[in-house]
Amino acid sequence: MLFHSLYAPKSDAYFTQTQCTLYGTVHLSAFEQAWQHVVERHSILRTAFVWQGFDREKFGHKPSDLSVGKIPNPKSK
Fold first, then answer.
1. Which among 5, 27, 36, 46 is least buried, having the fewest CB atoms inside 10 angstroms?
2. What is the distance between the alpha carbons of residues 70 and 75, in angstroms, rounded to a whole number?
3. CA 9 from chain center: how many Å?
4. Domain with 60 in it
């Protein structure tokens, strides 16, 4: 994936973002705890790939506290 990202930097083939709208009552603390568990369990979510020229390194970060915030929907009210 790193090769393809460097080969075609404007391609979004390996870059995906997801946005979700949650309806109804959202228990923010439970949601945050669930994501904290996922990040702690799956180290790839804490991994960074750093490169310069042909040199590249992979860094695995230790679990840290995850913070989830609520963004108001500008379309509501």
1. 27
2. 15
3. 19
4. 21-69
